[in-house]
Amino acid sequence: MPFGRAKARRIGIAVVFIWFAVGNSGLLLSVTEDDPGARAALLAPWQAPLPAILALVCLALVGIGLLVGFMAALPSVLARCSVSVGPSGLEITEHTKLWRRGRTTRVPWEAVRLAVSREGPFRAGRYTTAMRPVLELFTDRPFEHLPDFATCREAGAGDSRDAYGRPVAPYLLRIGSTTVNREKDVRYVADLAAHYRRDLFHPAPGTTVGAPDLWLLKGWMVEATALVGALFLGMAATFVFAAAA
User: Fold this and answer.
1) Are 50 and 225 in contact (CB under 8 A)?
2) What is the pTM (predicted TM-score) of this model?
3) How many CA atoms lie within 13 A of 232 on its CB side?
4) Which residue in 135, 207, 145, 208 sits closest to 173, CA to CA?
């Protein structure tokens, strides 16, 4: 079952990388066009004042950092993913793209203690949420290297508990639709899982399952903070260069 791209959120980040590189270059060129001293310093930086040289070095480092970040994000932006369900378990595959090797996360049925197919809240906007289908697997081990549409974390009694109040399993693996056009795919995967292991969808007597928590895309805060920092650092270095040249 095709399941979209591995890191769909990075498409927007890659666009921001390009937009910022073009915008900052344009700002630097506009400054040098209006200031003959800045133009001369840009053409012969070794003859420029020390503050202007340091500003150019800072701009170069920001540019290199953005380029490295863009090249690192590009394969996962383009890589396609698929989810397969069979008698032995479930497999989440990120296919090979460019210089990024493909990888497969296998979830055997014997690692799953309970399966729940329902709807969970997703971040739909800055202040709004939307309910979309999710498949939750309570497992006895963690699973890593997952694409954006899957996440695994420690589970507790608030997620699911047996008749004695103990967590059903120590970990919770969720597969969900981060976009509206993938909702039917999540439901189809859940139906296939129920076809092969319907017993996992019927908890033991006394078992309770808590409400699903809000789905948050992984790592977006770190990347957004880095982009904002690069934006202000590049602008500051450009104005320092113009003032010192």
Assistant:
1) no
2) 0.73
3) 5
4) 135
- With DSSP H G I counted as helix, E B as strand and the rest as coil, what are the percentages for the chain, rounded to 5? 45, 25, 25
Cβ neighbors of 204 (< 8 A, separation 6 or more) are 162, 163
Q: What is the pLDDT of residue 62?
A: 82
Cβ pair 107, 171 in contact under 8 A: no
Query: Chunked in runs of 10, what are the mean pLDDT values of the chain (245 residues)?
Result: 68 68 72 72 76 83 80 81 94 88 93 94 77 94 89 89 90 87 91 95 91 73 73 80 74
CA quadruple 67, 73, 77, 79: dihedral, nearest 10: 120
CA distance 157 to 52: 59
- Report how far residue 115's alpha carbon sits from residue 118's, in angstroms, rounded to the nearest whole number: 10
